[in-house]
Amino acid sequence: MEKLFDEYCLAHIKGPDVYCERVNQxxxxxxxxxxxWGNWERHRKEDVEKLRSEHIKDLPDDIANNQDLVTVIIPCxxxxxxxxxxxxxxxxxxxxxxxxxxxxxxxxxxxxxVLMNRAASKAKGKYLFRLDAxxxxxxxxxxxxxxxxxxxxxxxTTFDGLDVDTWKGTGxxxxxxxxxxxxxxxxxxxxxxxxxxxxxEETMGLSGTSFMITKDYYFRLGGCDxxxxxxxxxxxxxxxxxxxxxxxCVVRTDVVCYHKFRKNTPFDIDPSIKxxxxxxxxxxxxxxxxxxxxxxxxxxxxxxxxxxxxRVWRQF
Length: 316
What we know:
By secondary structure, the protein is an alpha+beta fold. It has helices at 7-14, 29-36, 48-55, 61-64, 81-94, 112-122, 141-148, 215-220, 234-243, 271-287, 297-303, and strands spanning 19-20, 25-26, 70-76, 99-105, 127-131, 135-137, 153-163, 168-169, 176-179, 185-188, 200-202, 210-214, 248-259, 313-315. It folds into two domains: 7-45, no CATH class; 55-315, Spore Coat Polysaccharide Biosynthesis Protein SpsA, Chain A, CATH 3.90.550.
């Protein structure tokens, strides 16, 4: 087959962005070299928003009219201050039921774990929804997530990129997360097409960007572990201590969090602090030092071994 790489293809192959507008999906350079060869029309996927609109169903009245209060907790660093007002407004416009919003500026800085625990202690809601300060939410996110959020279940969203100029999605689809042997979290690209997903799907890991948990369950699990540092590994912390103490992590596949993804964090994380955090997580959940543990790490790996067959992933 004749290679047809033009300027666009060559630029994509050099990266670092893995999203190709021509095929409307995330693809690595290996896809270009060994599958596409510039013949992108054969590989183009349907528009993601069209598929989502077909996947999302109307809610029954009892779910749509759920009046239990959700407390939205938004930790915000100074680099995200310019997006905070729009994030708050977006959350208000797209919620069906009552919500309260606790936004905390991290000027000191104290870190997201301290801020999360402080906000949770003041929250009036039955449910806590942790959200980054640069996000838009799909319509009815609160009612749909409350429907899946149980006393031992954390609920997360699917993800799309956010164009901060238009405040709309960029047409990407990220639905599921895996945890590596180093306890890092990665999106699993292309795992289960949108049209094949159940409304509620189990996920090995969570992104710290957006997840819902009952307030009671949050404190039963000890809240955020402030010894793990100011920022980072929030998804690994909550997914591990949920699954390995008998709980569940699920994706509500009819909810989309439109999130501003960045190639690099806008702040520095001390490597020694980061290492200490992962060392503690390893001792807790791999070695098994945490007394709350009811399932071994091997159980979680086997349960989600199907993720390992999907070779397209990316750290976030």
